[in-house]
Amino acid sequence: MNQDMKEWLTGMREAKIKKALPILSFPAVQLMGVSVKELISDSDRQAEGMERIAERVDAAASVSLMDLSVEAECFGSQIVVSEDEVPTVKGSIVSEPEEVEALNIPSVGAGRTDIYIDAVRKAAETIHDRPVFAGMIGPYSLAGRLLDVTEIMLYCYDEPEMVALLLDKVTEFLISYGKAYKETGANGIMLAEPLAGLLSPSLAEEFSAPYVKRIVDSLQDDRFAVIYHNCGNCTIQMIDSILDTGSAAYHFGNAIDMEEMMKHIPADTIAMGNVDPAGQFRNGTPESIRTATLQLMEACRGYPNFVVSSGCDIPPMSKWENIDAFFQAVADFYGKNR
C-alpha cells in the first residue's frame, strides 16, 4: 500500500477510536498448522501468516516476523531453532579487536535474509488495508549477539573502540538490509533494540542511539517509517537519546510504567505499548488480558498519542483466545468511551 506515513501517524494520533498495533506475527503458526521451523524457512508461509493475521484481527498495521536471529546468522552466528519457539543465537563469533577488524560485512540476501525480504514483498502485494512493517534488529542488539549479550557491556568499558568498530559494521549492513525492505513496497520497519535497554543512559547515548539515528536518517522518509522498539527497563531514564534517533514512532516493553513514559513523549509523537507478551498473551487468560488491557488504556487515556500494543513480540504459542480478547478489550474501551 503506497501511503504517506506521516499522514498515517497523524491520523492515528488524531483518531478518537484507535486501532491496536501489537507485534503479532509468530502466532500465525497456529492458524496455519505449521511449526516455527517451517515458518522461518519459507517466504510463502511467512507471507501467508501475515495475511491470515490481517484477516483475523483489525490491527493498525501488519508486522513481519520479529526474528532477531536472522541478521546475526548472516554474520556467521550459530542459531538454535525449535518447533515452537523463536530462534535464538548461540555463543559469540568475535571477542578480540583483530577478529572484529577481520569480520566481513555480509551481503543482503545472505542466510535467511532473502527469505524474509521476499516474504515482506509478497505480503505488501496482498495486504492493502493497512501498512506493512518489516521486523529488523537494532545495531547494539545485533552487535551484542556477535560479541555475546553479556560480554558486550563489559567491552563498552574495556574495549570501546572495538565495540564502536563492530557497531559501524553492523550499522552498514542494517542500512543495506533496510533499503532492501524499502524496495519491497513495505511501509516501514519495526527496529528492535532491546539489548540497549540494559545499558546506562550514558552508554546508550554512546553505543546505541547514534547508530540507530544513522539507520533512521538513511531509510526514513514520508513513505517509509521507522518504529523504534526497546523493551528494556531503563528506557524512561534514556528517553532523551531514544528520541534523538528521530524515529517516526516508538514502542516500549512491559518492564516500564507506560503512563510514566507517556509524560516524556512529545505530544505530536506516537508511543506504543505495553501489555505483557509472556504473562498475558502467552500465559494469561481472556479475563486477565482483558483486565490488563483496559487498565493500561485507562491509565494512558489522557494521551492522544498513545497506541495500545503488546510489550514485545507475542510468542508463537500464545493462545488465540487471549489475542482475540485483547482486541475485544480495545474495541470495548473505545465503545464505552465514545
TrEMBL record:
<dbReference type="GO" id="GO:0006779">
    <property type="term" value="P:porphyrin-containing compound biosynthetic process"/>
</dbReference>
<dbReference type="InterPro" id="IPR000257">
    <property type="entry name" value="Uroporphyrinogen_deCOase"/>
</dbReference>
<dbReference type="Pfam" id="PF01208">
    <property type="entry name" value="URO-D"/>
</dbReference>
<dbReference type="GO" id="GO:0004853">
    <property type="term" value="F:uroporphyrinogen decarboxylase activity"/>
</dbReference>
<dbReference type="InterPro" id="IPR052024">
    <property type="entry name" value="Methanogen_methyltrans"/>
</dbReference>
<dbReference type="InterPro" id="IPR038071">
    <property type="entry name" value="UROD/MetE-like_sf"/>
</dbReference>
<protein>
    <submittedName>
        <fullName>Uroporphyrinogen decarboxylase family protein</fullName>
    </submittedName>
</protein>
<feature type="domain" description="Uroporphyrinogen decarboxylase (URO-D)">
    <location>
        <begin position="31"/>
        <end position="332"/>
    </location>
</feature>
